[in-house]
Amino acid sequence: MEYFEHVSKIAKSLSNIKIKELIEELADLKKRGGRLFFIGVGGSAANCSHAVNDFRKLANIEAYTPVDNISEITARTNDEGWSNIFSSWLKISKACERDAIFVLSVGGGDIINNISPNIVTALDEAKRRGMSIYGIIGREEGYTNKVGDIVIVVPCPDKTYLTPLVESFQSLILHYLVSHPKLKVVEAKWESVEMEKIGV
């Protein structure tokens, strides 16, 4: 049960200000016709794929992630190297200043320890292209937090649970974003069924 105690503590200590700022930024992105590119590896990659589905279907925001195309990812890894899989994908996608990159990562990218170098190079490419940079990560020292515009750092009280807690909160926060009235335009299926029952 210790894990769930940590979940409760984190939920109470998240930065509401940053979450509100992120909602406003995403609403503005949608208004200007920008695209939202999610990047992440491992469990965070799975959250990227889920996020793309929800932002497209529920919020009508044009969202993409390179991790949805395993053929391209493996080809780029083989031909261009692991460090460049996301940056080269941004180039071919013609990402520009109207667009935003959204990093989902436990560490946020680390140059010194060479952890998630593909996130670091993608962020450098995003900066060159004038893109907005958002993120949900677990380490203040992460590269995403250093260069990002709005980055939510999950305040993890027990580092032995860092990865599962951060990846869990990525999902929680993303679900909150697509459910927010400023972003949501379509009800999720079961919510629409329940609303029909009560005549809403």
Mean pLDDT: 95
CATH topology: Rossmann fold
Query: Numbering strands along the chain, what is their spatial order in the largest sheet?
Result: 2-1-3-4-5
**Could you say what the CATH architecture is?**
3-Layer(aba) Sandwich
Question: Judging from the principal axes of the Cα atoms, what is the shape?
Answer: globular
Top-tier CATH class:
Alpha Beta
List strands and helices in order, with pairings.
Elements: H1 2-13, H2 16-31, E1 36-39, H3 43-57, E2 63-64, H4 70-80, H5 85-92, E3 100-104, H6 117-128, E4 132-137, H7 143-147, E5 150-153, H8 162-179, H9 189-197
Parallel strand pairs: 1-2, 1-3, 3-4, 4-5
Helix pairs in contact: 3-8, 5-6
How would you characterize this protein structure?
The protein has helices at 2-13, 16-31, 43-57, 70-80, 85-92, 117-128, 143-147, 162-179, 189-197; strands spanning 36-39, 63-64, 100-104, 132-137, 150-153. It is an alpha/beta fold. It has one domain (2-197): Rossmann fold, CATH 3.40.50. Strands 2-1-3-4-5 form a five-stranded parallel sheet, sandwiched between helices. Helix 5 (85-92) packs parallel to helix 6. The mean pLDDT is 95.
Short description:
With 200 residues, the chain is α/β, with parallel strands linked by helices. The protein has helices spanning 2-13, 16-31, 43-57, 70-80, 85-92, 117-128, 143-147, 162-179, 189-197, and strands at 36-39, 63-64, 100-104, 132-137, 150-153.
